[in-house]
Amino acid sequence: LHGVTQNLSRLFSTEAFTEVLQGAPPEERARWERDRKLLQVANTARDARFRKAASQLGLC
Predict the structure, then answer these.
(1) What is the rounded end-to-end Cα distance, in angstroms, of the chain?
(2) CA–CA distance, 28 with 26 (Å, rounded to integer)
(3) In the list 22, 27, 49, 59, which could disulfide-bond 54, CB 3.0-4.6 Å?
(4) What is the pLDDT along the chain (60 residues), one digit of tens a residue?
(5) Which residues constitute the domain of residue 46?
(6) What is the pLDDT of residue 21?
(7) Amino acid 10: pLDDT
(8) How many CB atoms neighbour CB 13 within 10 A?
């Protein structure tokens, strides 16, 4: 799951996706901006949990 969210984050930050989003209606762009911020917070928290778990297991 972690890898999937990382891949989606990379996909959504590409130039092609940005072009598609520019053609979207204003409501869709606003929804994406809101969701993108929430996903960034979730990814940061998830990364911290993985780092902590890896450290506790002696993997880092």
Answers:
(1) 20
(2) 5
(3) 59
(4) 556 656 666 666 667 677 777 788 889 888 888 888 888 888 899 999 999 999 999 987
(5) 2-56
(6) 77
(7) 65
(8) 10
Dump the DSSP string for 1-60.
-HHHHHHHHHHHTSHHHHHHHHTS-HHHHHHHHHHHHHHHHHHHHHHHHHHHHHHHTT--
8 Å CB contact between 8 and 40: no
Domains in the chain, number:
1
**Tokens (6 digits) for 19:** 């072009």
pTM of the model: 0.53
